[in-house]
Design a protein that fits this description.
This protein is α/β, with parallel strands linked by helices. Helix content is 29%, strand content 22%. The protein has a single domain (8-14, 21-86), classed as 3-Layer(aba) Sandwich (D-Maltodextrin-Binding Protein, domain 2), CATH 3.40.190.150.
Length: 87
């Protein structure tokens, strides 16, 4: 899903079938900023579509590297997604 604006947030969700845990959406930016707001708005539609809870987790620091590294090191079976802004 892409939201209009100066910066576009691209949020891709794979099909999630009957998971008991919420999907973690890692935002590599500080809470309360544009990236946080965009990720929360972008995760509301897939949450309704898949009837699955999406939890937005802000992990700002190191220019976005801290949050990105958390997603890269997540177990392969974990439902962890990265919300990244594209210009």
């Amino acid at each position: 899903m892409t939201l209009p604006g100066r910066r576009h947030a691209r949020f891709t969700v794979s099909a999630i079938a009957h998971r008991s845990k919420p999907v973690r959406v890692i935002v590599p930016f500080a809470p309360g900023g544009d990236g946080d707001l965009t990720a929360r708005l972008a995760s509301s539609r897939p949450s309704q579509k898949f009837r699955q809870q999406f939890a937005v987790d802000n992990r700002g620091g190191a220019g976005g590297l801290a949050g990105t590294e958390l997603v890269v090191k997540a177990p392969p079976d974990a439902a962890v997604k990265l919300a990244q802004a594209a210009r």
